[in-house]
Design a protein that fits this description.
Distance between the termini of chain B: 41 Å
Number of strands of chain A: 11
Number of helices of chain B: 0
Oligomer: heterodimer
Helix content of chain A: under 10%
Largest sheet of chain A: 7 strands, mixed
Number of strands of chain B: 11
Shape of chain A: globular
Strand content of chain B: over 45%
Distance between the termini of chain A: 37 Å
Shape of chain B: globular
Helix content of chain B: under 10%
Structural class of chain B: mainly beta
Strand content of chain A: over 45%
Order of helices and strands of chain A: EEEEEEEEEEE
Structural class of chain A: mainly beta
Amino acid sequence: EPEVTQTPSHQVTQMGQEVILRCVPISNHLYFYWYRQILGQKVEFLVSFYNNEISEKSEIFDDQFSVERPDGSNFTLKIRSTKLEDSAMYFCASSRPNGYTFGSGTRLTVV
Amino acid sequence: KNEVEQSPQNLTAQEGEFITINCSYSVGISALHWLQQHPGGGIVSLFMLSSGKKKHGRLIATINIQEKHSSLHITASHPRDSAVYICAARTAAGNKLTFGGGTRVLVKP
């Protein structure tokens, strides 16, 4: 069964550093997403991406964040100047009308 | 803004018991998803519902569009069913999901 692949599985970074989280969505899916889950809290929507542009973003997705689809397969989330409160599990997902598939997540720890 | 609420937050059952998890949402949706999250954190999609009922193995999901309510049932529960179960609503206006807070299920042998 097709999978959404995320790398790395864990990332530890110093506060103020930039991180790039990587995802390979399912190739014939049309929408791509990033969600995050702070420890002990609900999963929150960050951004959706369709037809090579952002289709929707949440209030959380401010200028610190950006997304890119640099080639036909990868989908990246860049966090500039990380803060302690950016520590969370970040999930990539992709969807078609009949379903959603999540990656296994990247656990980001900002120290 | 869609609010998604789940109950109970925690549930402990003995192996073999029937389990029900409830989910309610506040605005019209295009689909309701039930997801499973294991201790490692990964999320697996169980069901996507827009009406009626779906069954997969020992799992049954139902939705009542008029009542804005969905339930997930686990029949003949087993310790391997222990996980966090999350409902998430996909609004008619877009494709993003709004998540409930999850129900932590522990099935004891």
